[in-house]
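Ops channel
N.P.: pipeline sanity check, posting one input/output pair.
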């Protein structure tokens, strides 16, 4: 039995090569390549190479217009991550195209720490001021625990 990834690669690779994407992997693995913080607002379109070469190409990236400046400042990091993924200097420059798009579902997920206490606050029948006071007290205790943990790490 073949994995879904293998089947998708077999279908995507020929199409991707026609569009200039080195391997369909850059599209399939984009979030792993650049991380969820960048995958939330940008995606690869194609890689343009000089005729007869497969190195030092220009990676065309679509990016939400509101994040274009951030990507411009981070372009060296993105180039380094892409080249590290491929294992050779596949990309030497980025061409940023400001095109609005909807990010992937995984890029939209937030890392929220929930504690039993915070759930209790949300479901309690307290007055709004009492809930706020309790939430602030819980936040204070969490910050104190974190500071204490950092101090013990420094000792070792």
């Amino acid at each position: 039995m073949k994995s879904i990834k293998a089947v998708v690669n077999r279908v995507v690779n020929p199409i991707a090569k026609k569009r200039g994407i080195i391997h369909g992997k850059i599209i399939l693995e984009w979030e792993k390549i650049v991380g969820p913080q960048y995958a939330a607002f940008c995606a690869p379109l194609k890689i343009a190479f000089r005729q007869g070469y497969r190195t030092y190409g220009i990676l065309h990236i679509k990016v939400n217009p509101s994040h274009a400046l951030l990507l411009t400042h981070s372009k060296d990091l993105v180039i380094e991550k892409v080249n590290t993924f491929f294992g050779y200097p596949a990309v030497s420059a980025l061409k940023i195209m400001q095109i609005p798009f909807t990010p992937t579902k995984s890029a939209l997920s937030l890392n929220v720490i929930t504690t039993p206490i915070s759930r209790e606050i949300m479901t309690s029948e307290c007055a709004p001021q009492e809930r706020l006071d309790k939430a602030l007290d819980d936040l204070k205790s969490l910050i104190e625990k974190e500071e204490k943990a950092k101090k013990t790490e420094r000792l070792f």
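N.P.: looks fine end to end. Strands lie at 42-48, 57-63, 91-98.
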